[in-house]
Amino acid sequence: MVYIATYKLDAAELKAAAADLHTFDRVLLSGTVYTSRDAAHKRIFELLDAGKEPPFPIQGATIYYAGPTGTPQGLAIGSCGPTTSGRMDPYAPRLLDLGLAAMIGKGERNNGVKQALIRNKGVYLCAIGGAGALACQCIKECQVIAFEDLGCESVKRLTLQNFPLIVATDCHGVDIFTSGRETYQAAAQSE
Asked: Is residue 124 a contact partner of residue 103, using CB atoms and an 8 Å limit?
């Protein structure tokens, strides 16, 4: 049996809280996170490689792999569900080594990302795929801060309020995708 805890955290607390978070735990996240996808990651790395500052401070930050849709009247943002995290795997270890606290997305991560999470005491959180229209209700503010020409893939600063997430890979090396399969297979064999 897996014990699942629920935490209400501010994004600024994720780095300090990482050791207490375990795969399968639920997190209701509030505070500031930044969106970034493939094209924005490429540009961020061009800035880093040129010795320039990225569009937001990496140290202690959380990146949400999302490309929100247009903003309907009366909302801070349009539909804002996660994109497949694996496309950012080539970039994630370096960002974690630079102090990134957490990443939010969907899907499995490669071993290099998992090792960087362990090494840097980071955490990978999964948002519910296909529920972007519901997720946007937990986003209270949205501001484009870089690469506006990328449209929905521009870097945005989001302010979240109780955004529902699941710890998918913790800083202890436990991965929900591997552990989940193993737990299911063990339960199926015991029937």
From this structure: yes
